[in-house]
Amino acid sequence: MTGFFAQGRLTTIPVRPVVRRELLAHLTETLFAADRSYTEREINDAFRTVHDDTSALRRYCVENGLLARERDGSSYRRVAA
C-alpha cells in the first residue's frame, strides 16, 4: 500500500479493483470506528485527511460493502469485516 502514498497522502486511487478494495479496506479500518455512525460530513472530513476526492472514496467504500449508507443518506457506518 505504501506505493500509493506520499507524505501521508494518497497520491492516486488504484484502478485495479482488487488493489483498490484492499486500499479502501485499510482506510476504513484506520479512519472509522466500527461501533458508531458518521454523518456524510464526518466521512468527508476523515477521507480529506488522505485525499481530496472524498466523494469517490466514499462511493467506492459503499459499492465495495465497506461502508453502509442509510437510504436517506443521513448516516454511514463501517461494515464489520
Key descriptive features of the protein:
single chain, 81 residues, alpha+beta, 3-stranded antiparallel beta sheet, 3 helices, 5 strands
Describe it for me?
By secondary structure, the protein is an alpha+beta fold. The chain is 42% helix and 15% strand. The protein contains three helices and five strands, in the order ββαβααββ. It has helices at 17-31, 40-48, 54-63, and strands at residues 5-6, 9-10, 37-38, 67-69, 76-78. Strands 3-5-4 form a three-stranded antiparallel β-sheet. A two-stranded antiparallel ribbon has the order 1-2. Strand 1 and strand 2 (9-10) form a beta hairpin. The radius of gyration is 12 Å and the shape is globular. The protein starts with a strand and ends with a strand. The mean pLDDT is 94.
List the helices and strands and how they pair.
Layout: E1 5-6, E2 9-10, H1 17-31, E3 37-38, H2 40-48, H3 54-63, E4 67-69, E5 76-78
Helix pairs in contact: 2-3
